Amino acid sequence: MQKLWQSNFKFYILFLMISFVLIAGIAFPIMERPTAWFHYPFIQGLGENAKIIFFHVPTAWITVIAFFMSMYFSIRYLRSNDIFYDLKAHVSAQLGMIFCVLATVTGSVWAKFAWGEFWHWDPRETSIFALLLIYGALFALRSAIESEEKRAKLSAVYNILSFLTVPFFIFIMPRIMPGLHPGSADDDNAGPVVDFKMNANMQAVFYFSLFSFTLLYVWIWRLGYKVSRLKYLLDKE
After folding, report:
1. Are 91 and 226 in contact (CB under 8 A)?
2. CA-CA distance, 154 to 132, in Å (whole number)?
3. Torsion over CA of 188, 194, 196 and 201, rounded to 10 degrees?
4. I need a labelling partner for 172 at 20 to 30 A (CA). Which of 45, 192, 194, 233 fits?
5. What 8-state DSSP symbol labels residue 164?
């Protein structure tokens, strides 16, 4: 009973945190001269579109975290041959794909309002599309192999090699090539996210959003792993 109460309490706290991010990210206005604590400053080159950073950046951040953890659990599997590490890696990779899709969708929505179309094959869009293909192939690989041990080992090796491309596609390629996305090599307006001219309130909401989405990933991952572990044990009976 106590564990159930603690679980429900954590869920309600997380729900309130995500709800606040949604409200603050959508409803708080952008003003050229902020006068209230809930006003966001006008950022040259972004304008009203700046609000997307409260959702787009955290989903991209969790994409990297999830793929990194999937690589980490894959390494643990190769060192121990413990199948449960394979399950942990697989669940994290699944979440990485989900958040990668969310980052792509939110980025496309931003592109529609900022550039007039949902897709332009900008270096940032191209790089995240490449990640979707790379990790999509991982799930195709797993579904094509029946042997449990062989599937786990090949998936682990593929996971490790795949993550080596993540820093390049997420952090390096979009910044060394000219493009439309803020932070590209030829960007002279907004610059990278870390250079945004946020006021203290906007920074607080932004970092709170990153923290809330990180907790959301942890909560979903733990739930997904418990389900995968239970299913695995039931299939073995």
Report:
1. no
2. 19
3. 180
4. 45
5. T
Are 25 and 55 in contact by the 8 Å Cβ rule? The answer is yes
Find how far residue 71's CA is from the centre of its chain: 15
Say how many Å lie between the first and final Cα of the chain, rounded: 28
In DSSP notation, 180-203 reads: SSTTSTT--SS-SGGG----HHHH
DSSP-assigned beta bridge partners for residue 31: 41
State which residues of the chain have pLDDT below 50. 194
Residues in contact with 177: Cβ distance below 8 Å, sequence separation at least 6, in sequence order: 123, 184, 185
Most distant CA atoms of the chain, gap in Å: 66
Q: Name the residue ranges covered by the structural domains of the chain.
A: 56-236
Q: What is the CA radius of gyration of the chain?
A: 20
Whole-number Å distance between alpha carbons of 139 and 159:
10
pTM of the predicted model as reported, rounded to 2 decimal places? 0.89
Decide if 149 contacts 142 (C-beta within 8 A).
no
How many Cα atoms within 13 Å fall on the side-chain side of residue 66?
Answer: 31
What is d(CA 59, CA 96) in angstroms, rounded to the nearest whole number?
A: 9
Return the closest-CA partner of residue 106 out of 25, 219, 187: 25
Q: What is the pLDDT of residue 37?
A: 82
Which pLDDT does position 175 carry in this prediction? 72
CB 34 within 8 A of CB 181: no
